[in-house]
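ZP: hey, is the zinc ion complex queued? I don't see it on the tracker
AM: it wasn't, my bad. submitting now with these inputs:
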Amino acid sequence: MSELRELYQDVILDHHKKPRNFRKLDGASHIEGHNPLCGDKITVYVQLDGDKIKDLSFQGSGCAISTASASMMTESLKGKSRDAAETIFQEFHKLLTSSDGEAADGEHLGKLQVFQGVREFPLRVKCATLAWHTLRAALAGEQKTVTTETDDN
Ligand code: ZN
């Protein structure tokens, strides 16, 4: 249980219990994401206004990490341009995958930094990045379900 205690910081627990933007968006593009290693399944809904993410939401079920990450992603990226969202995605990905001790320079991450501890648990990294990979696929216009087992994360 020490792994869980370390990972489940207050902000993560809060988003797990009360996920933000947890709803269906009628008429929005949506795509499913699965992480079979953990059993996380989500659907991400995204509505673009030109180059801007006008609205963003998700539904689904998963562990605390995947739910909190999806919840915080919707809060962080709503209203952002696609380019800004990509920048944040790259910083978030680096935060989770850079080697231990390397400084995380995620200047755009804000409270997403709480996920830094996840990188010590490689299986959990897939939970934390699931929503992000799913959103990225949706923005790229893909239609098929995203699974963590066919990309390199
Ligand atoms: Zn998970």
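AM: back. The pocket of zinc ion is lined by residues 35, 38, 40, 62-63, 65-66, 127 (CB under 6 Å).
ZP: great, adding it to the tracker
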